[in-house]
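sry for the spam today, last one i promise. struct tokens for design, 337 residues
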């Protein structure tokens, strides 16, 4: 084994060890890398058109995103706050209405008899609330880490690339640079495809809920679009409040809402996203699904959310580092088939 090959194996071993000992650290770092790629997309034309240094361009993008968020929030704050407040009021009422409707049927009464509320329900509720608050604080802290890492990577990417290349043998620095450039291209394609799929799924959800007459269609559609970032599980979570709200009007309307989310998820998850990701990020649908299952079993919800971009990057590194670098295979050529 040459020193060049040994340096690659050592680096891979260090990454795998980090995944085993502290899996959240590399996942948060990779999420920060996605943020850096997203910030770099608009920063590049700003540098080209204005001649500004990179850190100025990234700062302009960050300030622009903050300004857009504040402007959109100020315009939509009042109606969205009313919808959220109404959602908080209607959801418990929807659940109670659903229970009452269940009790009117024999199977519902049979199910209710076997769902006894424990005597210490209040203490269990407090424990659940404390757990939920702790989880929320943890997610907020992780989001802050991801954003800061993303900004740092976007401002000085060459420093981190140079540090990575310094860990490898000089003979593979050229191939490493090409692989990193290709990984960046794949991640940009994945982000563009994911954003497109989220916008389409949110729009379809809003149109469908509006036509069905479901209240709070705007808030529910935004929730569905945001949760669409989490494959498979996100749309299921988004469908629950919409179905509960529809159940206050009619059980049949709840079924129509469930059918709407099923159709949107089928279009987005089985047609739109695989086609877009296969075109933009070169991700075969079957490989993407297996990556999601594998990441879910090891790393939970965060693993599912990052499974697709991780699989895209892994495919590039395996092809360049193992198939072409180790085995000596020639790059595959597109024959048009």
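last one done:
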């Amino acid at each position: 084994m040459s020193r060049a090959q040994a340096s690659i194996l050592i680096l891979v071993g260090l990454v795998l060890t980090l995944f085993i000992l502290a899996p959240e650290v590399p996942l948060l770092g990779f999420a920060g890398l996605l943020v850096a790629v997203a910030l770099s997309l608009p920063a590049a034309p700003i540098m080209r058109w204005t001649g500004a240094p990179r850190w100025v361009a990234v700062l302009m993008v960050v300030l622009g995103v903050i300004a857009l968020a504040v402007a959109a929030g100020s315009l939509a704050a009042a109606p969205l706050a009313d919808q959220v407040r109404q959602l908080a009021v209607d959801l418990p009422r929807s659940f109670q209405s659903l229970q009452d409707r269940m009790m009117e049927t024999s199977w519902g009464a049979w199910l209710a008899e076997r769902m006894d509320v424990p005597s210490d329900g209040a203490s269990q509720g407090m424990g659940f609330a404390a757990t939920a608050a702790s989880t929320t604080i943890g997610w907020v802290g992780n989001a802050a880490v991801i954003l800061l890492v993303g900004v740092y990577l976007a401002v000085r990417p060459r420093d981190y690339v140079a540090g990575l290349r310094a860990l490898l043998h000089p003979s593979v620095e050229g191939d490493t640079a090409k692989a990193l450039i290709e990984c960046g291209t794949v991640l940009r394609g994945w982000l563009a495809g994911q954003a497109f799929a989220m916008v389409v799924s949110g729009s379809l959800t809003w149109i469908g809920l509006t036509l069905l007459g479901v209240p709070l269609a705007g808030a529910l559609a935004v929730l569905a679009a945001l949760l669409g970032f989490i494959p498979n599980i996100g749309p299921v979570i988004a469908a629950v409040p919409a179905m509960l709200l529809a159940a206050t009007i009619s059980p049949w309307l709840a079924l129509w809402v469930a059918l709407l989310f099923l159709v949107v998820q089928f279009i987005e998850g089985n047609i739109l996203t695989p086609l877009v990701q296969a075109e933009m990020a070169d991700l075969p649908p079957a490989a993407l699904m297996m990556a999601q299952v594998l990441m879910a079993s090891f790393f939970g919800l965060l693993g599912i959310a990052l499974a697709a971009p991780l699989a895209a990057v892994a495919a590039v590194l395996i092809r360049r580092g193992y198939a072409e670098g180790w085995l000596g295979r020639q790059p595959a050529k597109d024959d048009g088939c």
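Residues 117-130 have pLDDT under 50 and may be disordered. ok im logging off now
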